[in-house]
Amino acid sequence: MTRQRLHLRFESRLNAAPQEIWDAAMTLRGINAEAMPIFRMTHPAEIGAMTDAPFCPGKKIFHSRVLALGFIPFDWTDLTLVEYVDGQYFLEQSPMGSMHYWQHRRTIRPDGNGAHLVDELSFTPKMPAAIARPFIALAFWNRHRNLRRRWGQQM
Prior knowledge:
Layout: E1 6-14, H1 18-25, H2 28-35, E2 39-41, E3 60-68, E4 72-85, E5 89-92, E6 99-111, E7 114-125, H3 129-151
Antiparallel strand pairs: 1-7, 2-3, 3-4, 4-5, 5-6, 6-7
């Protein structure tokens, strides 16, 4: 059986300063606000942001259960950053129960009076691509919808 690597890209132009968006997006509260109502991630009480632990490329920051609709356990992840430039981008390559491979790159750049936020995903699911791709697409479409609701969208 050939495992298919899938790629998705989502972009939003937001009406807020890039650093303000970045600071919110790096917190677990911000991540979960983006992700709900599709999913939320658990985290240790002492970790409120991905930056609470010293950055060590490729080292797990924490283990998380991923909860569908915020309360139904359906996956797990060992959140791991491999590249990180504060205020600009991160590259996450986290082991996940549902994936053979997972990579998420988020980039935030200044754009006029606001910011241009891009999420690029590359993943190889353990389940059929016909199931995984629409679910991941829905989850990130929802995240960007929530980002535009919170920060406003540039026209």
